Amino acid sequence: MTGEAGRLGIIAGSGMLPVYVADAARAAGEDPFIFPLKNEADQRWSGFDHAVISVGDMRQLASLIKKHDIKRVVMSGAVKKRPNFNEIHFNLRFLVKLPFAVKTLLSGGDDAVLKMVIQLIEAQGCRVVGAHEIAPQLLAETGPLGHQAPNEDDRRDIAAAMAAAEALGRLDVGQGAVSVGGRIVALEGVEGTDKMLERVAELRAEGRISAKRRGVLVKLCKPQQDIRADLPTIGQSTIDRVAAAGLAGVAVQAGRALLLQREETLKRADAAGIFVFGLDLEM
């Protein structure tokens, strides 16, 4: 949602998502301030006001939020490494939540950590909004998004992988699952979707997955997930790895998943005979 009082801040991890969010905000007449994360962000931000911050430096983040009158913050892009405790810098508002933050960093899953970060940012007097609120055009719609569509076998794999992904999400472990011939062959862990798909390709090459059945990747929001952060995201690299793993396609939750580089991603999927499908879980 754009046009509100106060400046928009974008915390930028790796990947192209922060760029899409920043461009969408600028197209809507905003002047976003970018916080590229040290050792995580991999895009150039010379065209935007920006300041590099460390992942755990809440003191610097709070100072910049106040200095630039930032009232809304978007968390976007991947973050591979949690900060060590000695990398976290406090301010007074942070200290109130310190015991909760320490416990979450030590033992919480990704969703718990993201919720904790949202609370800490909002304790600085601004509101966290989702990337999809700034760039709604990135959201996946219902049904086939390219020229390919799932067949009956694919739909059975989708159903199996959906059930597995939902169970996995409730444990706050990951968002993705792969089903081949109705059998779950891979679950996403902390390694992420790309590494999981590379593992599926290896299993296929070793003959441990049937060469006669293709299979499907499903990515879903965790049931308890705060959708302002870490929505399931697919792009060209996802399609490349789905193809390398011999899968028929990928299905994501419509309205709760982001499709990056849409035109190029769907063109690549069509060329490989891979479907990209938006699931309507409200039906």
From TrEMBL:
Residues 7-138 form the LpxI N-terminal domain. Pfam families: LpxI_C, LpxI_N. Residues 142-276 form the LpxI C-terminal domain. InterPro entries: LpxI, LpxI_C, LpxI_C_sf, LpxI_N. This is UDP-2,3-diacylglucosamine pyrophosphatase. It comes from Rhizobium oryziradicis.
